[in-house]
Amino acid sequence: MERYYKKRFWLLVAPAIILFTMVILIPFILGIIYSFTGWRGTYFAGGDHFWQAFVGFDNYVKAFKTSKFIVAFIYTFKFAMIAVVVINIVSLLMALMANSLNRGSGILRTIYFLPNLLGGLALGYIWAFIFEIVFSQILFGKTGFLSIPFLTNMTQNNTKSLFALAMLVTWQMAGYMMVIYTAGLNNIPTELTEASMIDGATLWQRFRYVMVPMLMPSFTIVFFLTLANCFKLLDQNVALTDGNFNTRMLALQILRTTRDTSPPNFGVAQAEAVIFFILIATITLIQVAITKKREVEL
Amino acid sequence: MKQRFIGVIRFRNASGRHSVDGGFWHFRMLNHINVQCHLMLQRSVSDIICTSKKIMEEWIMKKFFKAMALTLTMTMFAATLAGCSNSSKKEEASSTETASSTETATSASTETEDKDDYDFYIFNTKGENADALQAAVDAYSKETGQVVKVFSVGSGTDSADLLRAELSSSKMPTIFCCSNRVDLIEFTEGGYAMNLTDATNEDFNKLVSDIPENMLLVDSDGSYGIPFNIEGYGYIVDTRMIAALFGDDNTDSFIAAYKTATYTEFETMVKAITDYIKNDTLSTISLSGKSFTLLAKSGLASSLTGVFSVAGSQTWTYGDHLINIPIDGGFKDASATMSATVEQIDATKNLFKAYAQTIDLTSSNATIARGPELINTTTSGYDASVQNFAEGKALFIQQGNWAYTNMIGFNSEIGATLTFLPIKMPITDDMVQVSGLTAEHLNGSIPVFVPNYYVINKKTTDTQKEAAEKFLVWLNTSEEGQQFVVENMAFIPFNADPSVTSAGYSLGDSILQYVKEGNTLTNAYVGCPNSWAGDTVGAYIMENYMNTEQWPADAYDKISDYAISSWKEMAGLN
Prior knowledge:
heterodimer, A: mainly alpha, MetI-like fold, B: alpha+beta, D-Maltodextrin-Binding Protein, domain 2, 3 domains, 6-stranded mixed beta sheet, 3-stranded antiparallel beta sheet, 22 helices, 19 strands
């Protein structure tokens, strides 16, 4: 089998490489080049070809000067902080809960995982309905069951929208992360837990000294995925708030830059996208490096 | 699983010293998988049977599942392929493979004709009239034998990026659509918009010279577009509701008196009607000196819950359309707005305060009270507000003739009795900056404008341009073409003679009436910086004022100052 694959290595890998190059690599490189030009989408301001329209770092300077971009930057950052913490805690709890059951754990896991199957836009519209009608009028409004002002009209306030988006994203992603944590939990050798119990460790000590170090590989993966996903969030943002009340996140800001300027300045939008890429790559690389150090080899 | 025991078999190794006994069974699985197995295990016979059966079942199930998986994958793949090939929205007009089409094709310079399989290509950004345009194109093809390709975006889709992708490809659209002067900049800078003076067709040049001056798509270098149609907006009202409120015989005089009324009379009227709705007070309203008394609630009037149906979440209604009226007071048309100076913008302060006051009045007398509910997309979106009006819950709705089909969709009886009434604002003559324009005219007219233009692509071949010009002439001047425009697309043609034309439906006729009387305003706001009107000022009002019941005393000032400062900032003037 191995030899079969080894002989035909390039042939088998070729489709994926071709697709990747055409769809991701080439547009990526072109995008970086265009971010240094005065690209307007259908033409270059300054000449017919991009090498005649170089503007150097002008687009990047403009991007940083746009107040909307900085606001979106900070907002995305705040959102990612909240969402990553919440998703991790919730998915770990879900995994522990599902694991501790003798029967019905399969069904419970399926139910937790189902929200992940919904697409971003559908999710956003469903939750817009929930936040606007169910929360604000039926449950937590002035005429509802319990009056909790924080949970009413969450999509109409800048800070409350952070938590609204966090709730939405947790609901969607926690199931997926729970699956990863479950796999991680199942990989903890039972001897370790038994040995710790014999040594008299309490539940909390067991969790902290046995489970957490053994779960570090899973932590790595989950942090990586949630951090990247939260920074890149777009569909749910559009469907839930559409950027109203200054709730634009980075991806939405990049998308709307071409609408905000006339003629549409694709060069600045591309510069913002490159900044976006560098930001996410840096954060996730740092995070992977840090958590890899803490992994315990079995 | 049925099995047939065949017998015991004994195996010996090569030297003959070791032997092993095994059972020999014949299994049949699924009626077509025959398996014969040889079992060689040094255990008791029953163990052999159990283990072997398990192993065989597992192996067969694995094979079965693999086959199933493969089949399902192939089905999915096939389905995707079928879906992809059918879901493309491109439609080719039926090309008559007759001598006539090849004749027309080869009659002019030919190289590109051989490469393209159409004579010219229309990119239509108005999704709502996709079918109608296709029908018009089909009729044109049949008549002239030209092959036309039409691509229409889905209704409500943002077509800008799609258009840009098409313009960057080798098969560019010959005719595409451009909304206003601000969008035109992109196309003139990129060299895509053809100056209409470069047109070669005689009839086309005549068509161009017939376009009224205020309907041109121009910049400093020339004129570029043929108008689609004209549209208008204002307060739509159901005349039957007026009859229910003031009496059948007073309806016409009410409408006439309203058109010439002042803002103060309008304000009193609105408050009186709100009082009537809430407390059944039958007061007398005076408009332009005539008095109208409210009748006791009956019939249609009893379903009223508010005077205005306000779509609080749709910033384009009060951010774009309503803000156009004060801007019309400050600037003659879109070119003037595009070249506005700091002094001119500062001089509009009182106009914007009047605008803020109007929003205050309409939103506090709406069917939904001002508050968080008013700006929810679910409760006060576009459809919800139109439905509220169509079901008789509100007297006025600020919308345009494009909402007609939505309204009759909700309530088919309302179609025949709709009409436009002018929007009133507390503007006085000294606030108005445009020479020759009076506040009375502003309060007695509705904005009528061209929402979209056909633009010919300069970068296509001359034959294509000529063919495109002929088509536009046919669409806008020939009887057949106009029939498609008026009936199928439900447009009001821009070159219609108001004294003889009928648009075919109530709101269209109402607009033509205003055009005939000369009581129209321009859409000067399209010259303002992109996304200033709806997305900036509209969003500011929505986030800070539409959701609070009580406005602070300086609300009008704040709104006006914000509008002015953000305009200057977005235009790069300070």
